[in-house]
Task: structure prediction
Amino acid sequence: MNLSERKKVILRAVVEQYVQTAEPVGSKAVAAELGSSISSATIRNEMAELESLGLLEQPHTSAGRVPSPLGYRIYVNELMRRQKISTDDAQMITNALKSRTSGKSDLIDEAGVLASRLTTYPAYAMATVAGVTTIARFDFIFIDSHTFIIVTLLNNDTVKNKLIHLTVPVSPKMLTKLAAVFNASFTGIPEERITPALISSTERAVGDMIGVVAVIAGFTIELLCEAKAIDTRVTGTMNLLNHPEYRDVDKAQRLISYLTDDNELARLPLPNASGEVKFTIGPENLADELRDTSVIAVRYDVGDDLQGLIGVVGPTRMEYSKVAAKLSYIAQGLSVLLAGSDKLQLNPESKNSKLGDGGFGQDE
Amino acid sequence: MNLSERKKVILRAVVEQYVQTAEPVGSKAVAAELGSSISSATIRNEMAELESLGLLEQPHTSAGRVPSPLGYRIYVNELMRRQKISTDDAQMITNALKSRTSGKSDLIDEAGVLASRLTTYPAYAMATVAGVTTIARFDFIFIDSHTFIIVTLLNNDTVKNKLIHLTVPVSPKMLTKLAAVFNASFTGIPEERITPALISSTERAVGDMIGVVAVIAGFTIELLCEAKAIDTRVTGTMNLLNHPEYRDVDKAQRLISYLTDDNELARLPLPNASGEVKFTIGPENLADELRDTSVIAVRYDVGDDLQGLIGVVGPTRMEYSKVAAKLSYIAQGLSVLLAGSDKLQLNPESKNSKLGDGGFGQDE
DNA sequence: GTTTAGCACTCGACGACCGAGAGTGCTAAT
DNA sequence: ATTAGCACTCTCGGTCGTCGAGTGCTAAAC
Result:
């Protein structure tokens, strides 16, 4: 879109003022903002042209103008000034993320809460493993004659376990045998390849303890399925109510129930590259329910195997720049923390860990 | 409170009608409900008396009457007819709870979601361990020269683990030694007794690998603290908006932000005994924010060590009886499932588990 | 040709007003 | 003790008129 410099300035002024006040902005207000180097009459003319270009719209005659979705798009692409995140916010993000003691899903949760609190919009956070998950290793810990623990190490270096009580007795020797068999047959293969055939051949191999094999196999399948699942959390939905466009309870509820519906989350926009912030404005959204909302999302990748997404949903009237800055700062923080969280780097002498003072600096 | 039989009938009619319609109910409507065996004029007189007793109130002259908090209290204590849960709902609860694959906190979460969906009110679910948590046993699994897994069995039969990467080498032999030391000194004691003194004496005992001892001890402390924490979830807050008394967005938000504030949850009412349903009506609540809401909560105990609570928060105009029936049904289901969830009873012949078809029947 | 002052016009927001309806309390009759 | 009747009260919903912000157009100024 090729606009005269003056039109650009006016469009930017309209967007920024409207974002602040939520009221249609009139020619006079723009003139004031621009230091009255141009008269309101001229601005009226320019605004009329911007309207015929489809960048502004009028709620009704004799009201001010409001940016159209296309207007926001031009603003985001060409006019928006990149915001720095405030040091307060940066501090807060760093602290909140670091204070999480452990647990990937906890951390992702926390990031969502943080994003929604900081932006005052509902946030969604999702994470998924990119590669295939397999079991790298089985161990069975003998507790007593009817009890043992399954410990599995996954190929992405997480550990899962389960305590098993049996009605038939087991011995440490049997467990050793089982471990050998499972480590031989069940490691390094994806969930699809754990077939009933494999299970029954394994049962034949151990001869005894048929039921136990089935239990362990079941646990393994459950585990691998769970790892494959995309973990998504939506938080801060109530924040919507703070914004005048969602004073209408029904409207707010429609959107929120859409966001809360697990099945629909797949249709939220997904940025293409790590670190990139994706703005999806109003009707650019695939889902009808998001037609008059904007979504800002940022992707972060951790190594090869984990990729995640954190985003917020709000009215098209959003502080695009500020929100983007906050989200990408959080995403950076997550990248750093997740990269280090499961692999605690221990140096016996100095005892400082990778989490020490954070590797993530301030956004641009 | 000693009321004439007729007053009781009228009070009950007012409460039940008001709960249905959310409109103040007039003498005529009560007369109709009561089969017009009494005239509306008589009922007017009775209602005037009920008002002077403090059981009914008038929003304004020339409107119908509305139950006062005290009125609801009398209703709940003396007049309410116990409701049976519908078989549909029972089925739904059973299915939803059984379909959860695993994980205590998942199950509690699910129960909250269920409660809020079924009752259309925000629900809160919490669970805590009653006794002290200690570690029953340590195992260390050697992975490679710089990596091992800590596996701990807690005294409540849950297993926790962590993968540790070191910058210094370890050997299986060292891990065996460590396990012996930790099993000797760190088992069976609560978190408070893991003191710096204990840690440093342990460090001296192993001689080598000072840093590793500290890491393991740190993990242990973290674990025990986590186990002590009360796990609370609030779900379905948006349900509030469905109820006419919360059409006012600000009012809804005040309540929701109160419920979402972790620090305040401690002040929600707690039933005294397992299985008991506790009704807390309006001003009976300690917290100012709950002054015009009612809370219905039910407690469930699982064995000696785990106790939980599930409740809903709503306007005083609630279907007390139905909500109570649903909650106690859910609580029963939780008791049964939680009692069995961590100890999978395996019978190799028939393969049916304790979860088979559920041990919890219908609430009287 | 571009910019600007001036002016008539449009349209939504807000408040006043008013009638309808529901429900009450009181009185008098049963 | 109960009930019919009636005057009274108060809310709710709709209509109407005013107010003000903002526009588009025209004509003058630069």
The mean pLDDT of chain B is 83. The domain at 5-79 of chain B is CATH 1.10.10.10 (Arc Repressor Mutant, subunit A). The first strand of chain B starts at residue 56 and ends at 57.
